[in-house]
Amino acid sequence: MSYKGWFQPKNPSKYKGNATNIIYRSNWELRVMKWLDDNPAIIWWASEEFPIRYVSPVDNRIHRYFPDFIVRTKKKDGSEQTSILEIKPYKQTIMPSQKRKTKRHLVEIATYAINQAKWKAADLFCKEHGWHFQLLTEKELGL
Known about the structure:
This protein is an alpha+beta fold.
């Protein structure tokens, strides 16, 4: 999942932001970008273009979270829906199992807690704006 690079959209007019500066941080994100770019139901989309503030449970300070994607979709009934999509490995969406307290295990617990705080803030942000938040793992992406 450590595949990184620059994405060049076939339909740059659908991209909200700088279409010459789209970076993917995993092959999963690249797969979603290609789908967003090619899908006729997608009105516009952007990648990591705006921040959502959240309080980190690790240091109790306010941080900025840049969601992977914001997407405007035309639904089958003709209505439109804005969604925030976050792409993560499934293992980062579940609480790490009880292990000896190694540095690695403590990092996994901190990562899980921070992710939960980010996603809670994103979900609240979406509800306040009438949007939808969706977390996508390899299971939802069919990988």
